[in-house]
Protein 1
Amino acid sequence: MAAMAVMRKGFWMRLPSLPVVLIVLAAACILPEAAIHLFPYPDLVRGRLIQNFAFWPGLVKGWHANYPGQAELMFLSYGFLHAGVTHLLFNMITLISLGRPLAEELGQGKFLLLYLLAQLGGGAGYALLTTQTAPMVGASGALFGLAGALLWTRLREGLRDLTPVEALRDIAWPVALLIGMNVVMYVALDGRLAWETHLGGFLAGAAAMAVLWRRPDDASA
């Protein structure tokens, strides 16, 4: 019992170290899924959320919107809905693992801007490249943007500070994570993988990081 109490105390002591922006983003993703399971008729609730807040490619091509501004709002709102608990859980673990170092590096305001720009980029990638009419949901566009931002910083640091071997070794884990993310999501979603969203988010995140991030020696130059 004493050991369990110590473990619980350690867990709660570690929570405050999580940047507030990550807690807010995670809550924004968790609340819709929680509502689906807490309210009666979960299938109906999920259906209504998807109808109104998922990314529908047809809305870009002239489909009739359910409400004014839906075609614009969906470029952000899709990223706060998920296809189920497994999808949500995996994305939240990824958000914390990729987001913590970036939030600490950029500061919370710039990190939030990076995240939202990557989410917009993910929606744009899906709108431009998909041939499907099915709706798309999930935070993976923004998460691939975070991965793109991390890779950009590693590559830039590698070009300036590291040998080629050290640079390759330094970026090996995010590359492996990217591959793992795609494989796991492909399996979890029964092959319904929105690679267009991943690509758009990745490119947008890398481009945003190129503008937002400055190394300390750059800032003092």
Protein 2
Amino acid sequence: MKFLQDDTVLTRALSRFIEIVLANALWLIGSLPVFTAGASTTALYSVTLSMAEGDGQGIISTFFASYKKNFLRSTAVFFALLFAGVFLAADLWSAAHWDVPFQFILEILILSAGYFYLLIASHAFAGLAYFSGSPFHVLKKVFGLAVRNGIYTVFVMVLSVFPFLFLAKQFASVYFGQWLILFLLFGNGLIAYLNSLHLARLFASDAQRGAGA
């Protein structure tokens, strides 16, 4: 089949899609014990950032090398984000059900905290995949980078959360199973890759500034 050997836009796109499917499958396998989802997501971003930078490194070797290297850091961040998310959700639910004069102000404050929570959560594992250092140091760095990048940061945040909100909305639909299968096939891998197209440039520019300082 000659067209598979030709270096065309179609064959490059097909090759990249297959790579995304493989990376997504590795992410699913690595996330099967739920507490390892953080390490698996960091490893997924190691793969997709490498794709975005055109490094040409092996997907499987890159994934498992990152998984092993970043397991403890990623797991710590995963549980910190999980507990913070549960805390914010409980606060928002409580504020929405309190009949007090300053209820609206409380809701605004909690939603504002939720925005910054989502900002960190959507950049955290990509940052762990790219930068070395303690989890606190990496989260501080990616928070500063995200805050300074305006609309691109919003793009990453929306892209990271939209598929999950869409699946939740489709839960009662007869098409939910089909959408879920598509997401499990390539969904999170595609999200990570699209995010990485921006984040790879963002992180590289920061690394260059640090090297030049």
